């Protein structure tokens, strides 16, 4: 097998377009997952069953449903109900929504790990509930869960090629399209594989650096 550098050169414009789509899906999906996951976690601690039970049912349903099914539902079924989104927007929402159910469990574990004395101290100081969460509980909980959240970012990166199934051409989607045109699979697939490593490894290093910084 001979490596065709001209094929690599031809693929690179498509590759950079795919990189942009992949990074958009990863960054925006992560922001949604982190924010929504925290809301899920706090709602599951609500003393009101009318809040706690529906949230638990929804998160369990999402977590136990394949991401690919959720992508297809949002992209193909929601238009039947009058909601039509672009392929990239659908991919971002699906990734963020799916992984929010996992980050919710991470946040829950972090919150449960905060010593009970912290809650008692906040109550003794008559701190409002909002300040108790924002100034006492969440800062301690989030420090505990940074490594786990970072791991889910990397997992989301590895799942991002699924968005190509609905037409959002990420790196792998561009490689498959290029292969279909040129019948040269080796070069584009190899380039994409290396690119995933070059993105995932620095992300893991950043997660470790954040962990060391936050536990000081």
TrEMBL record:
One Pfam family in the UniProt entry: BPD_transp_1
Limits of the ABC transmembrane type-1 domain: 15-207
UniProt-listed SUPFAM superfamilies: MetI-like
InterPro entries per record: AA_ABC_transptr_permease_3TM (IPR010065), ArtM/GltK/GlnP/TcyL/YhdX-like (IPR043429), Ectoine_EhuD (IPR014341), MetI-like (IPR000515), MetI-like_sf (IPR035906)
TM segment ranges: 20-41, 189-210
Keyword Membrane recorded: yes
Protein known as: Ectoine/hydroxyectoine ABC transporter permease subunit EhuD
Organism name: Streptomyces axinellae
